[in-house]
C-alpha cells in the first residue's frame, strides 16, 4: 500500500473561497483517499501544526499573529504553496485603506502558487493531482488574450479612451451578437497582462478580466503601469487607485 502524503491546509485572512473551491472539486473524494491531513480545520479536529509533506495556505497576511503561524507551517513542511490570489498576491483586501494585505511570500519561502479568486476548477484540480504525483505546479506562460473568445476583435492601436471598469448590463452579455473586445469599447480589461487558465469565464458572462490569475511574467503591478501607459485614460480612471490595488500591491521585501 503506497504511503500517503501528509498535507496541511490552512487559512489566513480570506473568505475561505479557495478552500471551498478545493472541496467542491470532482476529484476531492479521491484526494481524501490518497492523502493524510495533519492540519485542516474545515474537516479535522487536529489543532496543532505537525510535520507534513505539503502545505496549501489560502488568504493574505493582515495580522501580526498570522506571521508566526505561517512561519510554523513553513518550518514543518517540505513544500508550501500559496492557494489563491490572496495568498499569492495579497488579494482583494489590498483595496482596504485600514488593513494591510500581504502575500505569504513576503514572510516565508513559497515553492509555487495556484492563483485565482478562487482558483478555477480545472487549474486547481490538475495541479492538485500533480502535487499528489510529486510533480511541480504547471501554469500557463501565455496571457488571456492568446485564447480569448474575443481575440479576433482586438485592435492594438490603443487609441480608444478607457473610461469604465465595467460595462453596463445592456452593453455586454453572452447572447449579444455585437459582443466585442472590451478595450475597443473603452472598458478596462486586463487580459493582455493576465495569465490564462480560467477558461475565460468572466468574458463568457460579459465581464472584462480583472487580473486575478496574476501576470505570466514579472510583477503584476509593474506590468499594469506599463499597460495603462499605452491608453488614453479618462480623468476618473486616472484618479482611481483601485485599478492598481485590485488584487495586489507592490511587493516590499521583509526580513524573514
Essential attributes:
256 residues, Rossmann fold, 2 domains
Brief account:
The chain is built from 9 helices and 5 strands; from the N terminus they run βααββαβαβααααα. It has helices spanning 17-23, 28-34, 64-76, 85-89, 121-132, 201-204, 220-228, 235-238, 242-245; strands at residues 5-11, 35-39, 52-58, 77-83, 112-114.
Describe this structure in words.
The protein is α/β, with parallel strands linked by helices and 256 residues long. A five-stranded parallel beta sheet has the order 2-1-3-4-5. 25% of the residues lie in helices and 11% in strands.
CATH hierarchy class name of the largest domain: Alpha Beta
Give Rg in angstroms. 19 Å
Count of discrete structural domains: 2
Amount of helix: 25-40%
> How large is the count of helical segments?
9
Oligomer type = single chain
Corresponding CATH superfamily of the largest domain: NADH:ubiquinone oxidoreductase-like, 20kDa subunit
Describe the largest sheet.
Answer: 5 strands, parallel
**What structural class should be given to the helix and strand makeup?**
alpha/beta
- Write down the secondary-structure element order: EHHEEHEHEHHHHH
Which outline best applies?
A: globular
What is the correct CATH architecture of the largest domain? 3-Layer(aba) Sandwich
End-to-end Cα distance, whole Å, is: 39 Å
* Total strand segments: 5
- Low-pLDDT parts are none
Which strands sit side by side, in order, in the main sheet? 2-1-3-4-5
The overall average pLDDT, rounded, is 88
Strand share of the residues?
Answer: 5-15%
CATH topology of the largest domain: Rossmann fold
Amino acid at each position: 500500500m503506497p504511503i500517503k502524503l501528509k498535507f496541511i491546509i490552512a487559512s489566513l485572512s480570506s473568505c475561505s473561497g479557495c478552500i471551498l473551491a478545493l472541496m467542491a472539486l470532482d476529484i476531492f473524494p479521491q484526494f481524501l483517499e490518497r492523502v493524510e491531513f495533519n492540519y485542516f480545520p474545515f474537516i479535522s479536529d487536529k489543532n496543532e501544526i505537525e510535520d507534513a509533506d505539503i502545505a496549501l495556505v489560502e488568504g493574505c497576511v493582515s495580522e501580526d499573529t498570522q506571521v508566526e503561524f505561517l512561519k510554523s507551517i513553513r518550518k514543518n513542511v517540505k513544500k508550501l504553496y500559496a492557494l489563491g490570489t490572496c495568498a499569492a498576491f495579497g488579494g482583494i483586501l489590498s483595496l482596504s485603506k485600514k488593513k494591510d494585505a500581504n502575500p505569504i511570500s513576503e514572510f516565508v519561502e513559497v515553492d509555487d502558487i495556484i492563483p485565482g479568486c478562487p482558483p478555477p476548477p480545472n487549474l486547481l484540480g490538475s495541479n492538485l493531482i500533480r502535487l499528489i504525483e510529486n510533480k511541480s505546479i504547471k501554469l500557463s506562460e501565455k496571457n488571456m488574450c492568446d485564447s480569448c473568445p474575443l481575440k479576433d476583435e482586438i485592435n492594438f492601436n490603443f487609441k480608444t479612451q478607457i473610461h469604465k471598469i465595467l460595462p453596463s448590463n445592456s452593453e455586454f452579455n453572452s447572447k449579444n451578437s455585437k459582443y466585442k473586445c472590451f478595450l475597443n469599447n473603452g472598458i478596462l480589461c486586463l487580459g493582455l497582462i493576465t495569465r490564462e487558465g480560467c477558461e475565460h469565464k468572466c468574458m463568457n458572462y460579459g465581464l472584462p478580466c480583472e487580473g486575478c490569475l496574476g501576470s505570466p511574467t514579472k510583477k503584476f503591478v509593474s506590468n499594469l503601469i506599463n499597460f495603462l501607459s499605452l491608453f488614453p485614460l479618462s480623468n476618473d480612471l486616472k484618479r482611481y487607485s483601485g485599478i492598481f490595488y485590485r488584487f495586489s500591491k507592490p511587493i516590499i521585501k521583509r526580513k524573514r
